[in-house]
Each structure stands twice: as structure tokens, then as C-alpha cells.
Amino acid sequence: METPKTAEFAHIGKSVIIKGELSGSEDLYVDGQVEGSIELSGNRLIIGPHGQVCANVNAKGVIVQGKLDGNILASERAELTKSAIAVGDIITQRIAIEEGAYFKGKVDIQKEMTKTEGAKPAAAASASAAAGSAAGGGSPTVAVKTKPGDGK
Questions:
Q1: For residue 124, is it within any domain?
Q2: Which residues span the domain enclosing 67?
Q3: What is the reported pTM?
Q4: What are the CB-based long-range contacts (under 8 Å, 24+) for 13-22?
């Protein structure tokens, strides 16, 4: 995910605290605290290393470098860097989790929907749910905690 253009880039600094619904039509960098919901459907969200977000996020792309407690709906890509602490479910087309990141939740990788594929994702979801219940569980859950040099 490339760096947003400065003219279309909003910045929430370390000392800023926002509670409520946050929406916009430009890329957003959060290094402060946000509690509530973040709606940036066609744009990107970057949670900086000092950012603390307790919100459900809907954006085109999401990069977490700080702390996120909430679900991510990223229409294109979600990325958790090595300093990220994320608790919540992620729905996206592409995901990257760096070694050292902490993540607890479910990951749902979606294909880009086209008119001819309308029925396929539901069938695939039922098949994966059936496979998950056949393996002895309900819906699949992922808890990832990586440590540099642990060899796993």
C-alpha cells in the first residue's frame, strides 16, 4: 500500500482523543485514540505506532502499526506490522501479517465479487463451514502470536 498523497491525507495526532463515528473521503493516519466506528469506504486507514483504536473499521485498505480492538472490513488489503496488536475479525481480499505481530480473531479472505460469481461464495462458505464442523469446531478461528527467531 503506497503512502497517501499529503493533500488528501488527514492526520490524528498522539494527543487527540475521538469518541463516536468517524467517516471521511480521504486517507487517514491515526496516532491518537479513537473509540466508536471508522468509515472510510474508498480510502485507506493507517493506525500509527502510538495509535489506539477501539472501533470497527471499514476502509479500502488498513495498516495497523499500533493497537486495534475491533473488526476490520478492508475491501482491498489489510496489513498488521510487527508492532501491531489486533483483536477482532478481519474480512478482506488480501492480508499480510508480519512476524512479531499479535492477532486474535478470524480471517475471512473474500474474492472480488462479479455478477457471474454471485452464488459461488455462499457455496464455498457452506463447504468451509461444513469442513470446519467436520474437523470438530464451528467457525474457524485464528490466534497468531509470532516471535522473531522462534523458528515456527
A1: no
A2: 6-113
A3: 0.71
A4: 14/50, 22/55
Cβ contacts of 151 within 8 Å, gap of 6 or more: none
pLDDT-derived band at 140 (thresholds 50, 70, 90) equals very low
Dig out the grid coordinates for 85 from the structure. Answer: 496488536
Domain membership flag for residue 76: yes
Residue 46 near residue 26, CB atoms below 8 Å: no
19 assigned to some structural domain? yes
The highest-confidence range among 101-105, 127-131, 135-139, by mean pLDDT, is: 101-105
* C-alpha torsion sign, points 126, 131, 136, 138: negative
Pairing of strands 85-87, 67-69: parallel
Domain count, the chain: 1
Asked, for residue 68, whether it belongs to a domain, the answer is: yes
Predicted confidence band at 149 (pLDDT cuts at 50, 70, 90)? low
Strands 17-23 and 33-47: parallel
The residues with which 74 forms a beta bridge, in sequence order, are 59, 92
Give the list of residues 6+ apart from residue 119 with CB closer than 8 angstroms, or none.
Answer: none
* Banded pLDDT at 8 (limits 50, 70, 90): low
